[in-house]
Amino acid sequence: MSKLVIANFKMNGSKEFIANWVKDFHEENESNKTIILALPSPYLSNFKDSYLNLAGQNVSNQSSGAFTSQLSAQMLKDCGAEYCLIGHSEARQYLMETNENIKQKFDQLAQESIQQVLCIGEPLVIKEASKTTDYLLEQLELLSSDQENIIVAYEPIWAIGTGLTPEIEDIQLAVDCIRGRFNKSIKVLYGGSVNSSNAANISAKTDIDGLLVGGASLNPKEFAKIAQLC
Description:
Elements: E1 4-8, H1 15-28, E2 34-38, E3 53-56, H2 73-78, E4 81-86, H3 89-94, H4 99-111, E5 115-120, H5 124-128, H6 132-139, E6 151-154, H7 168-180, E7 187-191, H8 199-205, E8 210-213, H9 220-229
Parallel strand pairs: 1-2, 1-8, 2-3, 3-4, 4-5, 5-6, 6-7, 7-8
Helix pairs in contact: 1-9, 6-7
């Protein structure tokens, strides 16, 4: 089974930057992983015919209507997105997203056959209180234990963009917690300050199905190394 490696550009890039990125990555990429590019939504349609799989970074919890500035699942599909991130910690924080909102988004994507990538993770205060598993299970309550075809990305909030990563044992504890929540086989990714220096160790020593890469993904050569090491 091919591992998934997602490049999350967040609010970065331009049409020219992304075109150059795709070209440079293609020249460097020697992996056989499934590569997914989560682009800012204005650029998705520009690259829908590229060799890469595209992902939205978020979606509305409504199908259509008077929701100025929002983006529906149908629109994402029209733009070529096959995947979509939901529940990212930055959306939970800055857009005040709740589990109820995220479940509605999950269902909207399902109606358009777009694969959801559900992001979960704990803040530092929870980690220090040794309550990580309880926190993760609470975030997973939005899904039935019988849910199929799930991708969950574990991203400890305190590790995103900080250069810090959890111990291998802590990552595996979280992965086991997530897998144990469901009755069916699911895919679990890890994200949080992933780079070419730690990707191989994380991938080899934990039971993950791939990586969700943030800042390091903006460098196509670095991201190609990560994909090869995953």
